[in-house]
Structure formats: structure tokens, C-alpha cells
Amino acid sequence: MHRAHDxxxxxxxxxxxxxQSALVLVSGASSTGKTxxxxxxxxxxxxxxxxxxxxxxxxxxxxxxxDLERVGPRTVVWLNEAQRYFGDERFxxxxxxxxxxxxxxxxxxPVLVLGxxxxxxxxxxxxxxxxxxLDTFARTRELLAGRIVTVPDRFDAAALDEARRLxxxxxxxxxxxxxxxxxxx
Length: 185
Prior knowledge:
Blueprint: H1 4-17, E1 22-27, H2 34-47, E2 51-53, H3 60-67, E3 75-79, H4 83-86, H5 92-104, E4 111-117, H6 119-126, H7 138-144, E5 148-150, H8 157-168
Parallel strand pairs: 1-4, 1-5, 2-3, 3-4
Helix pairs in contact: 1-2, 5-7
């Protein structure tokens, strides 16, 4: 079943296929399918032997900052739980700047940057600071502008109707014959 955010992700993948770098941050509450939607979206790129890079060692932020400059064409940069990157007090804004450089460098295109984020972090990173306050997420806010897609925490009427339609034609699992797999022998 496809929802609106799936179409946005599919468009980003299509642009990557066409040679254009893109970033999409999927924002939604816990267990809404953010990571799964990203994973499903990149499968066509995996079939074309794109690389998948998930920076995490020694910390997510340190790994991203130290190796973003080495990311080359046909790479998916996987920033699951993106607050681990953008929210890092020492490196967050530098990571946002490095991602901007990556996305705008034609010699490194195409790359696709995908991230997931909970709504409270999305609000924090995209909010304008109060007058006279330090703007701690200026680069991050600039990077994410127009690149966030929200996953609703509930299915809308159209999605529920589609699920009902699919369920009406499905064979109940208790009626599907069991088959011994090769590994079960």
C-alpha cells in the first residue's frame, strides 16, 4: 500500500536515476513506517548496485563528518534517526554544511541522502530562533527546507479503503498451504 510520502521518496529515487542528487527527510512518530518507507524506496537503486552508507562509528556524527567528503556517485547516504547527526552540538551544523556541499557538487552526483526524524526534532531543527537568541540550527534549517515529508500517524480514509480492498481478495493465512523450504530439510 502506497501513501503520499512513498510518492515523494519515489520521485527522489527517480531523480537519482536521472543523475540528480537529492535529500529527503521523512518525519513521523515512532512506528509510523519511516525507515521501512525509505528502505522500500531505495530497492531499485540497490538493484543497480548503488552503495548504501550508514555512518555510525565511532559515533554517528563523527563518522558522518569524517567521511562525507569521500562519498561518491551512486551512493545512498542513510541517516536513520537523523537527530544523531544534526543534533550533535559539536558536529551537527558542520554535517549540514558537508551534506549541502555533497548535494551540490556535480562531480559527486548522483547521491541520495535519506533520513528519518521524529516530529519534535523536525520542529526543533526547522524553527526560527527567538529574536536575540543564538541560531543553533541555521545550516540544518537551510538544508532541510523543502526536503521534509511527513508520515501521518494514522492511515487516512483512502489508505484504509485500499487495505480493505486488498484484504477482501486475500487468502487467509490459515488456508495457505505450508511448503517446506530448502533450508528446513
